[in-house]
UniProtKB/TrEMBL annotation:
It comes from the Bacteria. It comes from Faecalibacterium prausnitzii. InterPro entries: HK97-gp10_tail (IPR010064). This is HK97 gp10 family phage protein. Residues 53-83 are annotated as: Disordered.
Length: 164
């Protein structure tokens, strides 16, 4: 009985590719994806963050809250005048791993950020200023985008392993 011919070279290449995939640093991959998602969140939230409008006579300048996204402290934001490079800032953020979860903290250290986000009482206490929900809406948008971003990054990794 003749079972036919078999070319084992393709199976050997598959074996080698699987070994390469297994030896890859998946922590590094997950960290890179986390930083990309953080950069995308910043790209969504920064333009959505409201800028205060003040009369010229007040001497106040709006934009502190918006500039706060890419600074570690409010003083740092004021001294730097803000940063348009959200991607570079996201790259500098630390990523923490706990079990199978990767966490990156994106915060706005401006002390009144939560009041603008969620709303607050007026000065006299008799009224309410509604929240702007700039971060909440940006997080929701990112949740919709994240699966596609992760899928594209994973496909690129697999192409590199199996075609490279």
């Amino acid at each position: 009985m003749n079972w036919g011919n078999c070319d084992y070279k393709q199976l050997q290449r598959l074996r080698d590719s699987l070994a390469t995939l297994q030896s890859m640093d998946m922590d590094r991959f997950c960290t890179e994806v986390s930083k990309e998602l953080a950069a995308r969140l910043l790209a969504l939230v920064i333009p959505r963050t409201p800028v205060g409008q003040y009369p010229k006579s007040s001497g106040k300048k709006g934009g502190t809250l918006r500039r706060g996204w890419t600074s570690k402290t409010q003083a740092d934001a004021a001294s730097r005048g803000g940063s348009n490079d959200a991607k570079a800032y996201a790259e500098a953020l630390p990523v923490r791993k706990s079990g199978n979860a990767y966490t990156i903290e994106v915060i706005n250290p401006v002390e009144y950020a939560s009041y603008v986000e969620f709303g607050h009482r007026t000065r006299g206490g008799d009224g309410w200023v509604p929240g702007q929900y700039f971060l909440t809406l940006s997080e929701r948008d990112l949740e919709r985008l994240a699966p596609g971003v992760i899928e594209r990054k994973l496909e690129a990794l697999l192409r590199e392993v199996f075609n490279g």
